[in-house]
Amino acid sequence: MARPRTPIGTFGDVSFIKATGGQVRARTRYRDDDGKVRRVSATGATKREAERNLKQVLAERMSYRSSGELSPDSSFTALVDVWLADLDLEAKLAESTRALYERNMRQLVMPAFEGYALREITVSKVDRFLKGLAINKSYSTAKQARTVLSLALGLAMRYDALPKNPVRDTSRLHKPPSQATALTAGQVEAIRSAVRGWRRGPGISGPPPDGQLEQIIEVMLGTSARIGEELAIRKCDVDVTSTPATVRISGTIVSPAGKPTQRQPHPKTQKSTRTVSVPTFTAEVLRARLAKIGPEDPEHLIFFTRNKTPLTTNNVRRRLRAVMEEAGIEGVTPHSFRRRVATVIDRAGGADLAAEMLGHSSTKITKEHYIEPDEAVNPVTAEILESLAPKGWTDGS
Questions:
Q1: Contacts for 330 with CB less than 8 Å, ≥ 6 apart
Q2: 308 to each of 2, 56, 136, 186, how far by Cα in Å?
Q3: Distance CA 74, CA 271 (A)
Q4: pLDDT more than 70, % of the chain
Q5: What is the pTM of this model?
Q6: Which of 18, 99, 329, 341 is most buried as measured by Cβ atoms within 10 A of its Cβ?
Q7: Which residues have a Cβ under 8 Å from the Cβ of 184 and sit 6 or more positions away?
Q8: How far apart are the C-alpha atoms of 308 and 285, rounded to whole Å?
Q9: What is the topology classification, in CATH, of domain 185-199+209-369?
Q10: CATH of 76-169, one of 2.40.170.10, 1.10.150.130, 3.10.20.880, 3.60.10.10
Q11: Span 387-391, mean pLDDT?
């Protein structure tokens, strides 16, 4: 019967022999990371000192072996550090996504798992954690935490620090039933009116708004662009000489942590790069913006600050929120206009056209999150069902 192999990183019994100069040599066998057993020794004036020195040599050897690696005894905090470094090494994520992952990990996941070694993170612990988030926070919060926790523990598997990913065996998170709600035509007009009148008129101190917020709304309604995509539109992306006028959506505005707000040369997804034809009311706004820019560089942004730097998405959201609160209008965000666009286009041209306009890769997301369901059944059914009328039936009109 074959003897079981000594686990990597362990050593056997310590033996002692006399060394030169009256020293004592402590020796043992140590199984290295390559699976080979090697003799390791250290000397000292006495057996106790030689053994202590030997243990120091082994400790340094183990430390060198584990440097940059993970084991079942590694802390969850150590895993997070390695995982974040791995994300940076692969460099596959957009800066905004990388920042979101780290924020979700540190704010949502770390408080629950930072005291555990990897071997202590079980399916039941993860399952209770995710269910607690879904109940006490929201489905969306639990889903975001699940994503980053699964990615990190998946890396631990690749380092052989875990036999399996505990997240995969947790129960499925159930999304609460919901449906998209789009702004009505009346609500859009109320929003326009509120924005046009905000901080204007007699008795208002300070300079009036620069008018960009109302223009941004008209361009969102005409292009369906995400707020970051719209703020990234450049002079060279706009063609008002064609009929209808067109806008190329090819970037987005990002505000990386510790860095200035900047234009990212690609939008959220590859499918999101698109050229859209816009209605006349949007084209009129774009002509006004182009006239304001004048002969500036073609790369000049259509919307910008007084210092000609990019507007931040948070700044636009904050200003829109302030206007809506003052007007007593609730629940309006930049995404509200995308839902309005999606619903209007769906009613006239179908979900496929709406998804194409919004830059979605399929209609699934568009239908679930942007198009308000139409409860009205096609009235042609009334004509069809006339065939079921009783014999001799006549319309009394």
A1: 324
A2: 76, 61, 43, 34
A3: 41
A4: 93
A5: 0.67
A6: 341
A7: none
A8: 18
A9: hpI Integrase; Chain A (1.10.443)
A10: 1.10.150.130
A11: 89
